[in-house]
Each structure stands twice: as C-alpha cells, then as structure tokens.
Design a protein that fits this description.
Layout: E1 2-6, E2 10-14, E3 20-24, H1 29-45, E4 54-58, E5 63-66, E6 71-72, H2 78-92, E7 94-95, E8 104-107, E9 112-115, E10 122-123
Antiparallel strand pairs: 1-2, 2-3, 3-5, 4-5, 6-8, 7-10, 8-9
C-alpha cells in the first residue's frame, strides 16, 4: 500500500485496487472513527452520490476502508467547495464541520467533485424531498 497522508490525526493509505484505508490516531481517535463510519453509512442510505462508500471498518482498531473518490482538488474555488458543503447539508442532512477545500477531491472517472473526511461531521435530520 502507498501512503497518501501520514499525519498526527491519521494515516491514510491506498491499496492496489484503489481503496482508501484510514487509521485514526491521536486525541479522540475512537470517537472520530465512529463518527466517520456512522456518517458514511447514513450517506449511503440517503443515496449521496458525491462521497466515498464505506467498504469495511474495525472500530476497535480505529480503522476504516472506503472507495476512492479521486485526487485532491487544490485549485477548486472557495465558491465551488462552499456549494458542495451546502448541498451535503441541505440535500443530505450532514454538516461537515470542517468545510475546507482540502476535503474536496475530484474523481476523473465519475467526472465530479467529492467530499471526504467526515470525522468531525454532524448528522442532521434527513431533509424532506419535494
């Protein structure tokens, strides 16, 4: 596996199949891991198309594995990233709580931007759809 990020709060690796493996570290690693797992499960149920899909997790190891949502999008405008975070909240009921462009990737295969990193997110009631 290849390291994508090796920081104080997490180690993120990508495997041969493109799956993303995240190992939580540091303060509240267990809570942050559980939050990200819970949010990703709920977003899958709510059919959000622009977030990773949870493949596997081991809460006792502070570990999760997701599908790959592409590469960092360092040149995304603040307006575009803000609109993605607003859509996540208004249409899918998840407040990201770290709405920074570094948490946006671009998936060339799908031709879309994706939101990642839900360890600080807040689950809101599911919005009603018209």
């Amino acid at each position: 596996m290849k390291n994508l990020k090796d920081g104080i709060r997490s180690l993120v690796k990508i495997d041969f199949y493109g799956h993303v493996h995240k190992y939580f570290r540091g303060t509240d690693a267990d809570k942050r891991c559980a939050t990200e797992v819970r949010i990703l499960k709920e977003l899958e149920q709510r059919k959000c198309p622009f977030v990773p899909v949870l493949i596997d997790y081991k809460l006792e190891e502070n570990y999760l594995c997701t599908t790959n949502c592409g590469s960092p999008a360092p040149n995304i405008s603040r307006n575009k990233s803000d609109s993605l975070f607003a859509k996540l909240e208004n249409e899918f009921g998840v407040r990201h709580d770290d709405p920074e462009p570094r948490n946006i990737t671009y998936d060339h295969k799908a031709g879309q931007f994706c939101v990642i990193d839900f360890e600080l997110a807040t689950l809101l009631p599911e919005p009603t759809r018209s």
